[in-house]
Design brief:
This is Glycosyltransferase family 1 protein. One of its GO terms (molecular function) is glycosyltransferase activity. The chain has 17 helices and 13 strands. By secondary structure, it is an alpha/beta fold. The chain folds into two domains: 192 residues, 3-Layer(aba) Sandwich (Rossmann fold), CATH 3.40.50.2000; 174 residues, 3-Layer(aba) Sandwich (Rossmann fold), CATH 3.40.50.2000. A seven-stranded parallel β-sheet has the order 3-2-1-4-5-6-7, sandwiched between helices. Strands 10-9-8-11-12-13 form a six-stranded parallel β-sheet, with helices on both faces. The radius of gyration is 21 Å and the shape is globular. The termini are close together.
Length: 383
Amino acid sequence: MKIAFDVQLFLKGDKTGIAWCADNLIKEISKNTNNSYQLNYFETKRSREKLFLLDKYRTSGCIDNRCRYFNDVLYKLLWNIIPIRYSGFFGKKADITQFFNYSVPPGVNGKKVTIIYDMAYKSIPETVRKKTRIWLELTVKKSCKRADRIITISEFSKSEIIRYLKIPEEKIVVMPMGVDTDLFHSEYKNDQILSVKEKYEIKGDYFLYLGTLEPRKNIERIIEAYSNFIERNKTIEIPCLVLAGKKGWMYDSIFEKVKQLHIEDKVIFTGYVSESEAPILMSGAKCFIFPSLYEGFGMPVIEAMSCGTPVITSNTTSLNEISGEAALKVNPLDSSEITKAIEKFMFEEDTLNEYRLKGFDHVGKYTWREAASILTKVYEELL
């Protein structure tokens, strides 16, 4: 079986959720030496400096299959208007072509599989960039028709795809994501944690949010809840709140909220955190706070559990499904509930330890090996 991976997303910039998923799936799937693998991408002047990011896949046997005479951005703009064939750029030899980012272009040879992570652009469109929303509206439904199988990452997301796109249930396969336990574990040494804390000027204990700074992550309510926590507990030493992650969009109000509540001295914005620093930052946190308004999966939740860090998350969307009984769950629209959950972990050591152990036990069922096994079975069934 010859499998082609469309890896253009790795050449875009900092690695966030979708790229993390693609990275781990390619690494696991390509361990099977009975198949051959190729990496499809447009090589442009802009992307050339990032080609080294593909080296780890080359060492596991993946072969470059690049196109140097066309531009990926232009192709994305054109394919919804003019059905330019993908096979014209990348050939017709692959049995399966795997796309990782919602889309399937026209004219792909062989069987086509794509991953749809969530339906936020339909369910809560106000939290999605206009440019992204328009592209998804133009692309996703057509892509679902072109795809031979649609992969999604939770039962919740499957139900959303069926609800909004009217896709037959049998065309959709649920593949829960996994945790890279080589990175996300609880064995980091104190000096490693201290080094990362010093880099970001974090002193003492801290509560952590890690993710993109954008509306649907509900960061303003985290800030409100933290401010309430300070007001209710003036006689103790208050851990700082670390908001880690790169700026997404509509983030100005997040910084403004901190100023309005006069807690600038207690809130730390780190900016983008590298994949090597993220698990260390998680490991050192008092607790991980992730009351997102909408998630297709919520990978940071299980990553924090894998690091031995107790989790506060939402009782809605996929987060309720994915976290099981291993997290303190709150109504994400009620900042007072978030405050009470923070206090529970702050003042009840037994509860803190209980959820730390629950998290360790729960996260064991989320592995990239299992995810890759589900995906490989899909490929085999299609051929």
